[in-house]
Amino acid sequence: MSGIVFEILSSKCGTVQEQVTLETIGGLTVIRGFINVANPCHTIDLREQVDTDKKMLSIFLQVKAIKKICVQCLANLEFRIKINRYYYRELFNSQKCMLKLEYYHRGKRGVLYEGEFEL
């Protein structure tokens, strides 16, 4: 079982600053962000890694091309990650943990967030 819900909100032409915002809404922390890609025909696979000894939650976003005919333009993927704070509070037995959010695309690695995270 995971305390994360992930969805891609949009995939469209045009590049943007790769960044994320974190917002706490009740028992959830919502992370919204953008990743630039070669064209809009891409998707993202999410994988989480938990290290309870170090109180570290790592979220990896693997960008993958979708095999179909696609318009050729530099594009961006907008995504949203909902983290159940209470799930991880219980898992880590702590009010805080370290969070690392990074992505991989065409051999490129980018860190979108790395720091302390309030549970």
CATH topology: Immunoglobulin-like
Topology pattern, helix = H, strand = E: EEEEEEHEE
Read across the widest sheet, the strand sequence of neighbours is: 1-6-3-2
Report the mean per-residue pLDDT as an integer.
95
Low-confidence stretches: none
- Beta-strand percentage range: over 45%
Number of domains: 1
- The CATH class, by name, is Mainly Beta
Features of this protein?
1 helix, mainly beta, Immunoglobulin-like, 4-stranded antiparallel beta sheet, 4-stranded mixed beta sheet, elongated
Write up this protein.
This protein is about 5% helix and about 65% strand. The mean pLDDT is about 95. The chain has a single domain, classed as Sandwich (Immunoglobulin-like). The protein has one helix and eight strands. Strands 1-6-3-2 form a four-stranded antiparallel beta sheet. It has a four-stranded mixed beta sheet with strand order 4-5-7-8. It is elongated and about 50 Å long. It is mainly β and about 120 residues long. The longest helix is centred in the last third of the chain and has 8 residues, at about 85-90. It has one helix at about 85-90; strands spanning about 5-15, 20-25, 30-35, 40-50, 55-65, 75-85, 95-105, 110-119.
